[in-house]
Design goal:
Radius of gyration: 17 Å
CATH class: Alpha Beta
CATH topology: Rossmann fold
Strand content: 15-25%
Shape: globular
Distance between the termini: 48 Å
Bound molecules: NADP nicotinamide-adenine-dinucleotide phosphate
CATH superfamily: NAD(P)-binding Rossmann-like Domain
Largest sheet: 7 strands, parallel
Low-confidence stretches: none
Order of helices and strands: EHEHEHEHEHEHHHE
């Protein structure tokens, strides 16, 4: 009998890596980890070496073909029980009056279209099995303005709306759908923020710092474990949204 699978998209990145490790640890080997990556094969392979029985899958999730290849690769190994839609991009940073149609298409394809159709396709598998959990990784910027984040904000706000809609429609089929909303977290995504900007951001965080990827992973794990959590968004932002 094959083990059920937990799929973490963007496992080659900071939050995905911490999340995959924690799911493995908490499931005590009960779930097999599918570690998705796009460009950073070295990071995915390093993580695979750390998580026994895991496997890696490369896919560009902004394309239908990429999403299908992830689904097919997972189904070839077993039944998906968990999907963490974590892969995302905050690029390009464009002030509101400078947003470009090409940027809209590329950013929204990764942050919104990808998770939407992965929820549809993995959700179908989970609903047929009568159980499953989906966690989407949103952002504090879904509800807070920062110059340059118009398209990112829109993509994450829409992802939260989709989270609630899927929770409503899949709940009766035994599938729970929730989201986490991280504040500023120390990963490759925030590495390049200039020191002065970091200071400005941290001044808005009640706890006065950026967070660790493990803090987000804990919230994702909570949403996976808590069998009455459905259609909710948990903030992990150090109090930045206050
Ligand atoms: N860091 C923060 O402060 C922060 C705050 C709020 C929300 N978030 C959200 O948290 C999630 C993870 O971000 P992170 O901070 O861990 O950033 P990260 O380290 O840069 O990781 C981003 C991940 O997304 C993957 N990815 C990017 N474009 C992709 C595409 N077209 N197809 C498939 N995968 C793609 C990357 O894959 P490869 O590297 O293999 O190409 C990587 O695994 C994102 O959704 C982000 O929006 C982050």
């Amino acid at each position: 009998m094959p083990k059920d699978i937990a799929v973490v998209t963007g496992a080659s990145g900071g939050i995905g890596r911490a999340t995959a490790k924690l799911i493995h640890q908490k499931s005590e080997g009960g779930l097999r980890l599918a570690l998705h990556y796009n460009g950073n094969q070295a990071a995915a392979e390093a993580l695979r070496a750390e998580i026994p029985d895991s496997f890696i899958v490369r896919a560009d999730l902004s394309s239908e073909a990429g999403r299908k290849s992830l689904l097919d690769a997972v189904l070839a190994q077993g039944a998906p029980y968990v999907l963490v839609n974590n892969a995302g991009t905050d690029r390009p940073h464009e002030p509101a009056l400078m947003i470009q149609e090409t940027s809209f298409d590329s950013l929204v394809s990764v942050n919104l279209k990808g998770p939407a159709f992965l929820m549809r396709d993995f959700g179908k598998e989970m609903a047929s099995a009568g159980s499953g959990v989906i966690v989407n990784v949103s952002s504090i910027l879904a509800r807070k303005a920062l110059v340059g984040s118009a398209l990112y904000r829109a993509s994450k706000a829409a992802l939260e709306a989709l989270t609630l809609q899927f929770a409503f429609e899949l709940g009766p089929r035994g599938v729970r759908v929730n989201a986490v909303s991280p504040g500023f977290i120390e990963t490759a995504m925030t590495d390049g923020i200039a020191p002065e900007m970091r200071e400005k951001i941290m001044a808005q965080v009640a706890l006065g710092s950026f967070g660790a990827p493990e803090a987000v992973a804990q919230a994702v794990a909570h949403l996976i474990e808590n069998d009455f959590a459905n259609g909710t968004v948990i903030a992990v932002d150090g109090g930045m949204a206050l």
